[in-house]
Amino acid sequence: MLLSSELSLPQVLQRLVDLAVRLTDARYGALGVLDASGKGLAQFIHVGLSAEEGRAIGDLPKGRGILGALISDARPLRLDDLSTDPRSTGFPPHHPPMRSFLGAPVRARGRVFGNVYLTEKRGGGGFTEEDERTLVTLAAQAGVAISNAQTHAELRRHQQWLEALRSIGAAILAGSPTKDVLVRIADNARTLVAADLAAVVGPGGDRALRIVAAVGPTARTLDGLPVPLEGSLSGMAMRTGEAFVTDDARAERDAYPPMIEKGNIGPSMFVPLTARAEPFGTLVVANAPGQRAFVTDELRMVQALADQAAVALEYGRAQEDLRAMAVLEDRERIARELHDGAIQDLFAAGMGLQAAAERVKDGDLRRRLERIVTTLDSVIADLRNYIRGLRPTILAASTLEPAIHRLAGDLEVSTGMTVVADVDPRAAAAAELYAADVVQIVREALSNVRHHARARTCRVSVRTVGEEVVVEIDDDGVGLPPGGTIVGGNGLPNMRGRAADLGGSLRVASAPGDGTTVTLGLPLVRGEATPTRTVPA
């Protein structure tokens, strides 16, 4: 009754050893729990040895010698003297002397769960047949108690698993940030199997991965760590599409040392994250080296959480796509309203002024009206340029170079000045992630040239200088007025703001009568880049 009433498995095992020692009057007792293979010991619970004696002995038994004999032949075993049995392999240094031995298997749910071992019958002599019957009876009762405890633990774990799925699903539907959802998934996976560490490895750009969420003592050193697709266990799980468990990640050929060392990873499981039948990341759950290995049932539960992690990542991507689409739709609406409303009204006003100018007799007034008409034509041209910028068609994939040439050509046609576009294709490709903002800055600079420079020539160049992509717009016009600003203009502040948002800089060099040079410097992008803004404002 004392055993069967207990529902905590660790307490059942400890109580079994304590009762066995007391009922048989043994000096030492132990319970060896079999590992997943059934050929070795995963746990070894002992009584009778002091903490100091345990430290002196060192590593706990692995299931060889007499202990291994009971594993391979699961029947009660009673010996008067361990040392005389040919299966005995002796004791390690600092081990106390042990002669008499009694052991019996513990079965739970129709299979051998482990073995209980007793040594050194108090008062001398060996264990008796009565001791053996007592131990066999106790082992049978323990099997029932272990089954109850395992069932209780499984029910509790299943409840935790259902709660984890509910919590994660609620967070996804509530639109929580992807990072928060992934941290919650990792935390639930770690708690569910009582692991030391859990981490989510996701896309990192340029056929690479990175750790996008981690929980546990080593999480801070792991978060954001790049992980190669080739030459890592996470990458192997993705390539094969198969989840797997390892007793020690450090011994695996494909282990990635920085991740293993920073995460202090030993026994672990790697579960691929899959979307549309294609793996794109991995959920990693691990214990520290020397701690327990994971079992198949735990892997199945973690796989269910991995499915939720995949949903969270895909949901995050979909939300980003929806936000980008909303921006594009809004920009298309603005462009359409400008084209159908403002431009048509300005054009009509210009036509009316032009007709009025033809009827005016006063030559000075006629010239003033004609200048207003010319200004309106220029404003209409600028609005059409801005509309092209609002619409994404000007910036299809890899089109920064033709977009620059188009802007230069538009300026040349509308003003008659000579405009040269000198674009290094490699530099344009390196700045492609910034393309939308680069085009807007160049457009603003050329608009200033059109309205204020009174230039004969203008040049737009894109090239790489050191670790920067440099975009330069220079003209041979009248230059900026004293103070370096255009009265009433927001162009230069807007360009500087865009450059700062991209992590770059914008410099203006000018002197009255000596032209103007606008220089935009942007960080050179290699692999993945994440500029502050990738959609022009």
* CATH-defined superfamily of the largest domain: GAF domain
Cα separation of the termini: 74 Å
| Beta-strand content estimate | 15-25%
Percentage of residues in helical conformation: 40-55%
The radius of gyration computed from the alpha-carbon positions, rounded to a whole number of angstroms, is 38 Å
- Biggest sheet architecture: 6 strands, antiparallel
Q: Uncertain regions: pLDDT < 50 for 5+ in a row?
A: 392-398, 526-537
Structure report:
- This protein has helices at residues 9-24, 51-57, 65-72, 129-173, 178-192, 219-222, 233-240, 257-263, 296-359, 363-390, 400-415, 425-430, 435-453, 491-501; strands spanning 26-34, 41-47, 77-79, 101-108, 111-121, 197-205, 208-215, 226-228, 244-246, 268-275, 278-286, 418-423, 457-465, 468-475, 505-510, 516-523.
- The protein has 537 residues and is α+β, with helices and mostly antiparallel strands.
- The strands form 3 sheets. It has a 6-stranded antiparallel beta sheet, sandwiched between helices.
- α13 runs antiparallel to α14.
